[in-house]
Amino acid sequence: MELPRPTDDIDRAEHDLDVHGLCALTGVLDGPALERVRSELYAAAAADLAAADDAPAFGLDVDRSNQRVWNVLGRAEVFVGLAEHPAALRLLRSVLGWPMLLGNLSANITGPGGAAGVLHADQIFVPEPWPARPQGANAAWAVDDFTAANGGTQFVPGSHLRNRTPRPDDPAELTDAVPLEVPAGTLVVFDSRVWHRTGPNTTDDERRAAIFGWYTRPIYRTQENWFLALDASIRETASDDLLVLLGYRTAGLGLVNGRSPV
Fold first, then answer.
1. 10-120+127-246 maps to CATH 2.60.120.620
2. Which residue did the predictor score with more confidence, 16 or 1?
């Protein structure tokens, strides 16, 4: 299999997601919306660097040229729109159904000279053998252009069909990762079984930013503890969909005195 080509047709994107476990929908963010997202993200990243400590590098990064920005949802109002974007939710529903939970909204900014990240599948929280259907999915937003040179995310075509994590003894032909090259503003959705990694950034001066929304079926715990990480006032302005995604509105699990908390 090859990676699907980027498309501006959401019906085609949904088909690609079903067949390839991956799709790239172009033109979802553009103009002022894209510039605001980029500006707010790089401002948050700069603030984090100014307050940086000696915490160890994230486990999927092999050097410190790759910066992670955590709890993006709580950094600026513009990011709320990404978490519940209609195009993202349509594609995610085709994989996970409804309700689902937003496990995290974080960013990954690769810097010049950065090495490739660790090849992995996001479904490592599920014991193998895996169920027949994916238990999670990412909605990734290309804040900058993704190119082969600047660290665009690499995917192993068809890896979702193996329905397992990559193994150290896998032959090279099974782990050949291909860079997904898409313009800024593209929405990339991929299911949790797809093998992927941050690509090497071989440029001299380019940074490549992406925001990753991680979603799961509602039986799994969120990566980010929203009840502690977010200001409680979000309940006053959140849409019904966002309340479900954050776990404030539930059915069957997470009840308070037998009822949904909201």
1. yes
2. 16
